[in-house]
Please model this.
Amino acid sequence: MAPITDGQSLKQLVLGRKDVQDMSDTEADLPPDLMTVNMGPSHPAMHGTVRIVLTVDGEKIVKGDVQPGYLHRCFEKESEYATYTQVFPYTDRLNYVSPMINNCGWAMAVEKLMGLTGKLPRRAEYVRVIVSEMSRITDHLTCVGASAMELGAFTPFLYLLKCREWLYQLLEKVSGARLTHSYVRVGGVSKDLPDGFAAELLGCLDKIASVMVECESLLNNNKIFRDRMAGIGKLTKEDAIKTGCVGPIARAAGVDYDVRRDYPYSIYPEVEFDVPLGTTGDCYDRYLVRIEELKQSMRILRQCFAQIPDGPVMSDDHRVTLPAKGATYNTIESMIRHFKHIVDGVRVPAGEGYAFLEGGNGELGFFVVADGTGRPYKAYCRSPSFVHLSTAEMLFKDHFIADVVPIFGMINMIGGECDK
Amino acid sequence: MSQKVLDALTAALPGAVVRTGSAHGDEIAWIKREELVPAATWLRDDPKMLFDAPVFCTCIDWLDWKPVGRPVAEYWNETKPRFTVAYQLRSTTHKHRLRLEIELPENDARLPSLADLWPAFNWQERETFDMYGIRFDGHPDLRRIYLYEEFVGYPLRKDYPKEKRQPLVRRDDLPINPIKGPHAGEHK
Model:
């Protein structure tokens, strides 16, 4: 190619136009047709695997058809063939960012059918709330960190995931597993908190609080972050209610609803916490609500450690508790009961019930139909991610393709929970 | 807890309610399929009810139902139709909750869609259709949601074997959905 000597050939080279004087756009330059763009199922900006078929008019989204299901692992079908206790590992894999809350939700559903609600040892309730609130913090840390990273802020992501790792290490000390805890049991929890846990967690909370100060100063008034979050993906209060939104998304839109306060369960009436509400319902409000909830969870944790009583962490109801190990090895009756408990499962009287609690993303519920055997006849999970994802199409409309990233990040769709 | 909701519903729409009951603190109203939409509209709009927030929609397949242990509560029919579709509702104002259950025979498993009343049921009814094959009349977009379109059968039905495998068939074309609204017809 001949060296470029004058401005005209440079323009020709860069713009690819024959007549560089005529800068008007013709139909050939900018086709007026709508175009289909596939985002996902595997895309770096997608949390989890979900496919979005965007129909775009230029850069503007006309329709976004969201297609979940790539992570469908037959939670409900598998549960029908597992004993009630064997379902706990499956629930770990629903919302894998806050597995403890799923564990508690399943246990509450089974306890509701057995009439054990409110009859657990108080220490067990406290331990459940402690691990649930820790999980809520890890959930919000992941959501905020990942969303910030997708908008180009890599430093807060590393800071926040460092905090998450401290909590995961503590949860590992409690349960023995870093991510898939399977810690909660029907009637209580599998083992007590380790020695010195309170001091470690409280120290960890202080460190997290100082990291949050750093992250908020990096994000809250960051021009790029605000420009891409504020006013994006707005949801009105009425729409949030009728589309079934719960949790931080609904609260950012001004819906004053928190299961922990409005339908109190476990020991939540005994602790004090505030429910943050947004005003505009956009992505920035969702971020602010999550940050504030995270601080409220830390507040709940501090109160729990001031109030937690001593005592057993497992109900003494023989229908749900294994006999003591010494008795199992030395008496035939206990041996039989242990065997029946493991092989046949916890026998739940026939009936149906829906138990729900405040998960990381809002009302997480389990609808269980029992037929009197040790395995659920039907186990349905009301996953907040699935309901929230159904609003995505509405939120995407008339936004740019680039806005899909913050909207999707702040919906916080967790593939395992959404696709079940 | 919310017995007065059940009483009010029975009093206002006596022709729609088959029976009511409470189980473990959940209020349940069995509704006739033909009267579902008027009953649901009344529940949503009546100032004493105001069930504005949808919670979930699912289905129960009673094919293998053989309860053991204590006798089943009297409000559960011994001779059940094959399917029961359950809609759980919540009121943000009054804080009460209610589950509507509609019993459907095996050979006519269809009922009117509630997706127009509560948009959240759009996807949840699609999920129920995908997993149980229940047809929702008047649903704006009733396609499979988790599984692929070529999938045969409904996996959460009790007669679908758990170990059954279906190879994923190749898909040649990208499904393009018709555009509604001002851009209709522009898409090529």
Observations:
- Chain B touches chain A through 50 residues (CB under 8 Å).
- The radius of gyration of chain B is 19 Å.
- Chain B has a mean pLDDT of 82.
